[in-house]
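A protein record pairs a chain with a discrete description of its three-dimensional fold. The following entry can be read in just this way:
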Amino acid sequence: MSDPAIYGTEEPMAALRRVAVGPLSFLWGREALRQIRWHGVEVVRALAWPIRDESWGTWPVTVEDEQLDAGAGSAGRLSFTVAEGALRCLLEVRADAGGRLTARLTMDPGATPFRTNRAGFTVLHPIRGVAGADLTVTHSDGTQEQTGFPALISPDQPVKDIAGLRHSVGGGVAVDIAFGGEVFEMEDQRNWSDASYKTYCVPLVHPFVYTLEAPVTQSVTVTLSGAGDGGAAAGGGRVALARTGARAPQIGLALEPGWEAPESARDIAMKTGFGCLLVRLTGVPDPAYLAIAASMAARLRAEVDVEIVTGPIPEAGIAEAADALADAGLAPRRVLALPEGYLSSHQPSGPWPGGATPADLLPMLRRAFPMAEIGGGVMTNFTELNRCRPDMAQADYLTHGNTAIVHAGDDLSVLETLECLPQIFESAGALAAGKPYRLGLVSIGMRSNPYGADVAPNPAQLRRTMGRADPRHRGLFGAAWAVGVLAASAGSAVASLCLAAPAGPFGVAVAEQEYPQAGYDGRAAQVYPLFHVVAEAAALAGAPRLGVSGLPEGVVGYAADRDGLRMMLANLGADAACVTLPAEAEVALMDAGAFEAVTEDADWLASAPRERLRDVTLPPFAVAFARIAGGRGGDVTARR
């Protein structure tokens, strides 16, 4: 069972078994083969077989039989069903020490046709050593094309009509992948913060919902050659802290109806000291909701940014929102508006919603809010921003949000999103064209679903794709992941971001919910561990930022110089890690042993006993809050 203090759920973690056949190795799981390596170099991030429902959610698998021979000439066999037996699947895998791995998947709907948005093999290509690399594509008619993996994030499919791919990883390992049984195409999954390029079927020119009416068999064969360098070496040397000339970003809380109550939770959320309140308006503005927003912003003298979702007559909706905000005493510093149809995702080639476009709303906003900065961008993910790019000559700032569970909900995939965020921030920074870049809500859970009718229901609080209330948000996992988000913003143009809401599925304050909250129900808890990360980040906002480099693999750091050196270090790995600080520091450790104290006291970070340490041991998903009085940077030595 999972530890609720870490994961927010007791759902057992997905079992992954390491299989090694000579220099070829991979992790065997019931939903994918992960981290396929050749001589230690990751050549395929995942070979998966997801079965999607009609809203792009992934059906959980029910395993009927599993066999794995991890010896020489390794073979695996997995028989499973989805959708209460509506589709029966058989996976067969063979691998050998010569560098050949073959997977074969048969999907049988039986007598009743099976409706799906996508079913079959998906190959995820890593971005390290691959981004920008040359690529040879074999098309379904046998012709070949010379192209490359995109460097900046591509808004559409960079490669189509795929029967085979050939490329190298890091210049040292040759990778040849052949596909059978279906035509495949590639998309740049970095759009959704997945740290990969994805080759999938069926092509998007087919309807999103299609029907399997007879058994279908697909195959993927990976052939590897060449010798790698053993992969990137784990950190362990001296870790440098460098003055960057940048300032730590402003930290906000996102707000929409339902996330502001009850009053007791609201009062606790105020203790984070957030610098911006991001207020969303949909439909007719509720005076009570706006009064709460006005009170929260006034108490902290926080800036107010407003997001307006407009209906069929956008100018009337914008004017109505402006009047309601004025009546509530809210003077927005910044305003973004989008037609409701642009909360959904659309391919770059369309079709696009009829009626007003986001660009059409900009002059309406300037008339209604003459004193505010007017935003360009979206309220969903970078994907939608990249596909519907605003004219930044007409906008004052750029914005979008992010969720970590669009395509996969397992722990490893969520953590891998942190590897991709710097590339999202780089690509979005380029689109901002020198204007301020302000992120909306960056979260594990999905705030709204641009790809289907709604987010996936998650009443049992499992690790699943496209769920709004993700249990890890409430655990140490969510707090450590948030430190990873902050660390990923190093060197970027990110000026502001939201990591949470006051209460609700993205809250920092504990409040009763309609779903179970393992580790909290029946306890007098006040806050989730994420609260303390948000509060510390808010306290550092605007301070000179320090770059942190050289940390061991799996450890992330975020530091700034405010009344001395202040740093958050988070261990995102499954093993303990040790970090040696540049000088003796006062350290408060937020780990599973401190979970009750951390969650029962919103003032824990201020009152927690701090040890004077130079060597800090970080258990898995622990966060260390370190303060070095009068610290002026310097070196940090880190080792695992």
